Amino acid sequence: MGGTAGRTSRDAAPASGSPAAARRGPVVAALMLAMALAALDGTIVSTAVPQIVGDLGGFSVFSWLFSGYLLAVTVTLPVYGKLSDTFGRKPVLVCGISLFLAGSLLCAGAWDMSVLIAFRVVQGLGGGAIQGTVQTIAADLYPLKERPRIQARLSTVWAVSAVAGPAVGGLLAAYADWRWIFLINLPVGAVAVWLVLRHLHEPRRARDRKPRIDWAGALAVFACGGLLLTALVQGGVAWPWLSAPSLALFGAGALCAAATVAIERRAAEPIIPGWVWKRRTIAAVNLALGALGLLMIAPTVFLPTYAQSVLGLGPIAAGFVLSVMTLSWPLSAALSSHVYNRIGFRQSALVGIGAAALILLAFPLLPYPGAPWQPALIMLLLGAALGIFQLPLIVGVQSTVRWAERGTATASVLFCRQVGQSVGAALFGAVANATLARHLATAPAAMRSGLPDDLDSVSHALEHPGSLSAPAADYLRRAVDTAVDHVYVGAAAAAALAFLVLLLLAPRRFPVLPDGETD
């Protein structure tokens, strides 16, 4: 494949009249601004949660500020991917940004927590269009050889957002009002929309017939994804896994999935066409990036807890331990073209995910309690490995399809990664809870009376160590350390699964189309 990738990237040139032939600078700026809306969203909101809860109440359901947004983004990705292939990228992106901004304005005016959650879902409906369509336009703009440049810029947006988001959110919540974390989106989004409308010019494409929208399929995908993801997000948190609500959601989701398959098989232009899973390259990449979403839960969700509870760091320092991964990731992604142009897309991804598995396995070997630089070094190396893994797969898939399929293919990849994150949150949450519960149940009798009675009290006890004896506090920290170690072992297993999927299912050479044929 290495020779194939190099030949197509050197010899092919963007067709005249395509978006790549137009002025790309303003369009790239628009894409980065649009991506910043989605990238900054979670980090800014999470910082202002105490102020939001203090003003609106609803502490018991505030997690839905994030879960509701995630659900809306995930289930709409396939829909927007198909729409962008049918009607073009520009109208889908403009509508997505506009919907996100409308949701932001509504969130700023929310009067209680339930209303704010509903408006966050509206934001998520726009966020799904932004994430998928921005990646697709990036592939439209640049030929294969230049594609890592735009992907690296988009990765840099996520890196900067990971560092700047908490600071901006904290400043707005402390010195202004939490509602400004939503209002700040308006000028950024307005500039992005203006740049897209003015500078993104897509060529007219001839159609054999009037396009038909698979509204039944879109509704079925939305309902199925919403049911299953709600079951995964809330299971073990809002209710036990084997409780009636959990079983009912999984059962309804399974029935809805069967109905979705039946609807999509009969549809003239299905939202999720069968070729997405029939082509070995796309199917293998979908599964591999689903495993990536799974393993990413370990650093993004559990590392901050480890840094604060085990290492005793403050929230800002704990965030820095995680943020170093977002610094090495875009740099590694930018340089990955030098790797995959030599050895191929699959081989490059195998190197990256193989290294990631070994790095994740090194985490349980850290000493207790250890020094902050040790997990920070592991995250730095992990970001470098995952940059070499993810970008070649996304670029590779986009290079194997034509324009009319690129939005659907890109959305399927992002959809699988998002689903992997939801599954990982449920799976690794259960692993960590089981480990903590076992340690609490088997604690020495002498200190058992001073330990928390349930898992919900563990974080409170560690935040107020004065309520525990020194041996009890140390025992509890060791329990958290063991729980996070188990999560990282599970993440390494997910990396190994991605390695096997690529090794056994992905073709050694991706069937890359010359750049002229992809338009």
Word description of this protein:
The N terminus is likely disordered. This protein has three domains: 202 residues, Growth Hormone, Chain: A (Up-down Bundle), CATH 1.20.1250; 54 residues, no CATH class; 242 residues, MFS general substrate transporter like domains (Growth Hormone, Chain: A). It is mainly α. The longest helix is centred in the C-terminal third of the chain and has 39 residues. The protein contains 22 helices and no strands.
Q: Could you tell me how far the N terminus lies from the C terminus, measured between alpha carbons in angstroms?
A: 21 Å
Q: What is the 3D form?
A: globular
Q: Under the CATH scheme, which architecture of the largest domain would be assigned?
A: Up-down Bundle
CATH class of the largest domain reads Mainly Alpha
Low-confidence stretches: 1-22
| Helical amount | over 70%
Strand tally is: 0
Tally of discrete structural domains: 3
Which structural class do you get from the secondary structure elements?
mainly alpha
Determine the mean pLDDT.
81
Fill in the CATH topology of the largest domain: Growth Hormone, Chain: A
Count of DSSP H/I helices? 22
Main beta-sheet strand count, sense and barrel state: none
Fraction in beta strands: under 5%
- Rg from C-alpha positions? 23 Å
